[in-house]
Structures are given as C-alpha cells and as structure tokens.
Amino acid sequence: MAYEYEGWTLYTRDVLLKGGRNQTIYFFSKRDPKSGTPCDKPDNYTVGVNKRTGLPYLKKK
Prior knowledge:
- The protein has no helices and 6 strands.
- The chain is mostly beta strands.
- It has one domain (4-60).
- The strands form 2 sheets. Strands 1, 2, 3 and 4 form a 4-stranded antiparallel sheet that branches. The chain has a two-stranded antiparallel sheet with strand order 5-6.
- A hairpin with a 6-residue loop joins strand 5 (45-49) and strand 6.
- The radius of gyration is 12 Å and the shape is globular.
- The mean pLDDT is 96.
C-alpha cells in the first residue's frame, strides 16, 4: 500500500552514485513519475513540510 500525504504519493527508486555505490531514495510526487515505484513510509521516518514551498519530505526521527 502506497503512503499518501495530502495528495502526494511517496515513491522510491535506487540510484547509482558516482562512487559506484547504490542508494535508495524516497520522494513525493502528485503525478506518476518516469521512474520509481509507490512505497510505504519507512520506519524511523516522519513527514515534514517545507514552509516556503509546501512540499513534503521525509526526515529521520
């Protein structure tokens, strides 16, 4: 079940960093992104909202 916050859906995807290491990133989107899959909110994270833009983001507890 995908996590939703005020119309935003949480997505995840794996990216390859310049050093050759893979890292999982999480991002919110209102539309269907080019890459990424809907996901649940990971444990030990809370949702914050950027005061200036109103965009949600994940932050560690």
